[in-house]
Amino acid sequence: MTIYHIALRADWAAATAATAAGANAGEYRVSTRGRSLEEQGFIHASTTVQVAGVANAFYADLAAEDLVVLVIDTDRLTAELKYDPVPGAAEPFPHIYGPLNVDAVVGLAELGRDAEGRYTFEG
User: Fold this and answer.
1) Residue 47 CB coordination number (10 Å)
2) Could you tell me the domains of the chain?
3) DSSP 46
4) Percentage of residues in the chain with pLDDT exceeding 90?
5) Does position 21 have pLDDT exceeding 70, yes or no?
6) E strands along the chain, which residues?
7) How many CA atoms lie within 13 A of 59 on its CB side?
8) Which domain of life is it from (predicted)?
9) Helices marked H in 1-123 — which ranges?
10) Residues 6+ apart with CB under 8 A from 102
11) pTM, rounded to two decimals
12) Quick one: pLDDT band at residue 17, thresholds 50, 70, 90?
């Protein structure tokens, strides 16, 4: 199964650079914009249909070029994955309860913008 995590492009680049240098044991530790895994307790993720809503709610002020969507293969995760209810959301959101191992990220996707400037996502 595939889930997604919206990342600041600079945060993802730092994680992959550290991994290449042999540091951090190949881990990404950002929960969401401005919050670490240690602060939040888990890493926020989304299903395909949830990505655009999250982008518009929390990243609307950023340029699409500043963001990247991590494509995560849940079978490769080394941390526990739970689907938690979120107040006001129709469906539970996937949360990764531990560091995201870089090798679970099987691709990168981009966010688009519609004519009104709202983020879109095709998956």
Assistant:
1) 16
2) 2-113 (3.20.170.20)
3) B
4) 88
5) no
6) 2-8, 27-28, 30-32, 35-36, 43-44, 67-73, 80-84, 93-97, 100-101, 105-109, 112-113, 119-120
7) 26
8) Bacteria
9) 9-20, 37-40, 51-58
10) 15, 16, 19, 26, 27, 28
11) 0.94
12) confident
